Amino acid sequence: MVDPQIGVLALQGDFAAHLSVLESCGYRRSPVRSCLDLDQVDALIIPGGESTTMLKMIDRYEMREALVKRIRNGMPVFGTCAGAIILADRVSDGEMALGTWDLQVERNAYGRQSESFEADIKVRGLDETVRGIFIRAPIIVDAGGAEVMATFADRPVLVRNNTMLAATFHPELLGEARIHRWFVENLCAGKE
Ligand code: GLN
Question: Which CATH number does the domain housing residue 48 bear?
Answer without folding.
Answer: 3.40.50.880
